Amino acid sequence: MNFSDVNISNLISGLLPNGDFEKGPKQSDIKGTVVKNPHALPHWEISGFVEYIKSGQKQGDMLLVVPEGAYAVRLGNEASIKQRVRVIKGMYYSITFSAARTCAQEERLNISVAPDSGVLPMQTLYSSNGWDSYAWAFRALYDVVEIVIHNPGVEEDPACGPLIDSIAIRALYPPKMTSNNLLKNGDFEEGPYIFPNTTWGTLIPPFIEDDHSPLPGWMIESLKAVKYIDSDHFSVPVGKRAIELVAGKESAISQVVRTIPGKPYALTFAVGDASNACAGSMVVEAFASRATIKVPYESKGEGGFKRAVLRFVAPGNRTRIVFYSTFYHMRSDDFSSLCGPVIDDIRLLSIRKP
Questions:
Q1: Is 298 a domain residue?
Q2: Are 68 and 100 in contact (CB under 8 A)?
Q3: What is the CATH classification number for the domain harbouring 335?
Q4: Name one Pfam family in it (predicted).
Q5: Do residues 157 and 209 share a domain?
Q6: How far apart are CA 169 and CA 111, in angstroms?
């Protein structure tokens, strides 16, 4: 692949060139489903056992699902795809892509933009569609970067790897504290790309604790992912974006904020549901250092929210704010998709002593 093949110039938001893989290899470069030429897939360079999969294709008794469109790629053992893109040096970016498990038991993916890299676990399927969309972020250290998605699997069947589809990029603008909120990005308006015309949101993977979070200002300090949702497809309390806590106490977000020791503060936030058939008795737990509150919310799965406040006195010059859901929930329309309460419009302000 020549860099001149990549028609991307400081792309701020959208699919990478041929990010949906609808442009396929020439028939002479493919044998069955296996792509034989490293440069056969337009705008991409491949390595290892890579298959070009058509929607509805079967592998034995298993039907292979393609998240969007008609085609996707499947990465076998140690296979990878990569593309060089032009970016703005010093800026933060988020990569969003869709992936579906096939026959491997311990599937995971490595994603990297040198010198950053991350491992995205795929053992948990959050939706009943057969696939999920994931986000990962990096800071561009160069004007041209190479995005690599790699399957480190060691399955006996080299074809037992994940399907990859719809790879997009979005520039991130890290928010700052304001006079109205000591928390950064408390409204969650800054975050990863969400694919239009999709109904499953974007997962922000667990163990995201560094400065390159796809949810600027927040850390995902849990065993499971949280879901980033938008008002085009879900009920959102305020603005365009919010977070759905989809895995009980294993799905948590946190932020460390500067405070003044001994000064009282008020942490306000909205708790609701995404209008996605996630019904039942929900509880969101919020922590500000040692102060806690449990906020019950009776969800009918049809949207709506309530507000809550946690008042506390800062014990030090830094206070850790944490949110998670007390219980696990499943959508009532399919009984297999993980779901949970929505949190949004989180604000932290100092208050006068009584």
A1: yes
A2: no
A3: 2.60.120.260
A4: DUF642
A5: no
A6: 13
CA atoms of 123 and 319, how far apart (whole Å): 33
Residue 280, amino acid: G
Closest Cα partner for 227 from 237, 214, 210, 212?
A: 214
- 305 in any annotated domain: yes
State the Cα torsion 149-153-157-162 to the nearest 10°.
-40
The stretches of the chain forming alpha helices (DSSP H) are none
In a shared domain, residues 228 and 126: no
SS3 209: coil
pLDDT at position 210 is 59
* CA–CA gap between residue 241 and residue 257 (Å, rounded): 22
Q: Could you tell me the sign of the dihedral formed by the alpha carbons of 91, 96, 102, 106, in that order?
A: positive
Strands 219-220 and 252-258, bridge-based pairing: antiparallel
Assess whether 206 and 164 both reside in one domain.
no
d(CA 323, CA 220): 10
> Could you please report the per-residue DSSP string of 93-147?
EEEEEEEE--S-SS-EEEEEETTEEEEEE-SS--STTSEEEEEEEEE--SSEEEE
The pTM is what?
0.93
Domain that holds residue 67: 3-172
Sign of the torsion angle spanned by Cα atoms 214, 216, 220, 224: negative
Structure tokens at 118: 């991350």
Task: Calculate the dihedral angle through the C-alpha atoms of 320, 182, 265, 235, rounding to the nearest 10 degrees.
Answer: -80
The secondary structure of residue 276, as a DSSP letter, is S
Six-digit token pair at 244? Answer: 């759905």
Q: Tell me: do 39 and 110 sit in the same domain.
A: yes
Residue type, 75: L
Above 60 in pLDDT, residue 306? yes
Q: In this structure, are 338 and 269 located in the same domain? A: yes
Residues 27 and 140 in one domain: yes
The candidate with the shortest Cα–Cα distance to 159, out of 32, 349, 286, 37, is 32
Residue 157 corresponds to which amino acid?
A: D
Owner of token pair 């986000």 = 135
The fraction of the chain above a pLDDT of 70, given in percent, is: 94
pLDDT of 53 above 60 = yes
Is 192 a member of any domain? Answer: no
**Total number of domains in the chain:** 2
